[in-house]
Amino acid sequence: MTEPRNQPEKVVKETAEQAEKPVEEVQEQVEPAREAVSPLAEVLGQAEQAYAAYTEAQRQVASSYKENEDQVAKAYKRAEQQAKNNCDEAIRQSLKARGEAITQAAKARAGAMAQSEEAYQKAKEQAERICEASIEEDRKRGEEDLAQAWQARDEDLEQVWNIYTKLSK
Q: Among the residues of the chain, which ranges form H helices?
């Protein structure tokens, strides 16, 4: 078998020489040349198949990148939604804690006001008792002083009558 590179040249030379021969003879000689070209056609076919496989691989890679991009986008959306949910939950808990703190403060305020009112009432009652006791004591003292004043008047009158009766006698 001859070298594949030299085959087309050989075919051209033989074809030129046989151009003078009848068509049937030429066709008989062309058949072996076609058979020689057949491996080239086979290699070209393989190259076409390889190129088709290459383009299919490129399409699959692009599809894989697109699918990966979609998955990353979905994961980001999930993470974003989870962060939003966590934020919303934290806000709900803060609002709940604030409400509970306000309720406790209101209860403490009400308790303090009740204690303050109770202390005021006790202080008021005590002041009234002290005032009443003081008034009562001042009344007694006043009555005693008045009684002493009457007694001193009566004694003074008696002395004056005694002096007057002694002088008038």
A: 7-17, 23-168
